[in-house]
Write a structure and sequence with these properties.
Layout (H helix, E strand, L loop, with lengths): L2 E5 L2 E4 L4 E8 L6 E8 L6 E6 L6 E3 L7 E6 L4 E6 L8 E9 L3 H6 L5 E2 L3 E6 L1
Parallel strand pairs: 2-11
Antiparallel strand pairs: 1-3, 3-8, 4-5, 4-9, 5-6, 7-8, 9-10, 9-11
Length: 126
């Protein structure tokens, strides 16, 4: 079955960096747009970043643009989220998502995605 497994979360001071990874299995990774979402306590899940199935398109939430970078390695079936200049408001559980044959924008705006990971906690202390 399809599995998306996130890793790389942790506790970091404001201004620091973290790199999240999401390893996919059970699917043809190169066919899927991949994205990151996050959910803070008491808030709804929100879009963070996405990369299209072809790898040629990326899309970011305004709140992370210029600080976060999404990338993918199809040979390793893995998508990454490099997070720099972290702020306390970036604290959340970060989820990986996969959506077949979508562009980055489509993954960001669709009502649902094909698959979700279980999440990894990111805590940014002030």
């Amino acid at each position: 079955q399809v599995q998306l497994v996130e890793s790389g979360g942790g506790v970091v001071q404001a201004g620091g960096s973290l790199r999240l990874s999401c390893a996919a299995s059970g699917l043809t990774f190169s066919f899927y747009a991949m994205g990151w979402f996050r959910q803070a306590p008491g808030k709804e899940r929100e879009f963070v970043a996405a990369i299209g199935w072809s790898g040629s398109s990326t899309y970011y939430a305004d709140s992370v643009k210029g600080r976060f970078t999404i990338s993918r390695d199809n040979a390793k079936n893995t998508v990454y989220l490099q997070m720099n200049s972290l702020k306390p408001e970036d604290t959340a559980v970060y989820y990986c998502a996969a959506d077949r044959f979508r562009t980055a924008l489509e993954l960001a705006v669709r009502r649902d995605r094909d698959y979700w990971g279980q999440g990894t906690q990111v805590t940014v202390s002030s």
